[in-house]
Structure of UDP-2,3-diacylglucosamine hydrolase:
Amino acid sequence: MSEITAPALAGTTEVAPLVNPVFISDLHLAPEHPKTLMQFLRFMKTQVPYYEELVILGDLFDYWIGDDTIDTAAPIVKALAYASSIGKRVLITPGNRDVMLGPGFAAACGATLLAPEVTVECMGRRFLLSHGDEWCTKDTEYQKFRAMTRDPQWQIGALSLPLEKRMEIARQARSQSEGTKVKKTAEMMDVVDVEVYKAAKAAGADVVIHGHTHKPASHELAEIERWVLPDWDLDSGAGRDHWGYIRTVDGKRLQIIM
């Protein structure tokens, strides 16, 4: 049996400058979401070729129980690997739903696995990139869960379990998450601006891009810009389909497309 590497230890913080990136997050891809998957595959085919970098800031998957299940994501891996093969840089940050996304998946896609927070030069400015859940500090219950699932020893222990047990844990976690959401206010589940501001200042960044909250918008925090990515969902029905991304325009500004 090969040695297990904790995904928490695998991400890099060293990223070359971004030239013409497109950012996405919170797709929550899963077999139960076929229309969202098809939209992702269309996006990879029709949009990604126009950019130099594809940056995925967490929750590409609705759940991910380990890189040894990579065969279940064959169409997604194929699409990302094709983008890499034609010279696109694919950068992936694990989110809270796919925190176990590791180096095996990244290697299969020809992608670079990123650390939870990464600073990178883009448009002559300094960007701080993250999934964003670390800044939801009013939700103390969630922060305890986040700390546990990102602990390298916990990850190694979880990855050592049989697949069936891991899947059971993932189902329980999703069910518990949905159950606790109804008891929490929107403010509690949102990022805290002062935490974002402190992280940006510590990183020397003046632009922050993140996902997680499903509240796409741009915000001004003193001299810091905070951009929130849209989530993707084309399977709920009732006219609630939505998806989108953030791109750079003329190498000068950011734009949310939805």
Summary: The longest strand covers residues 117-122. The chain has eight helices and eleven strands.
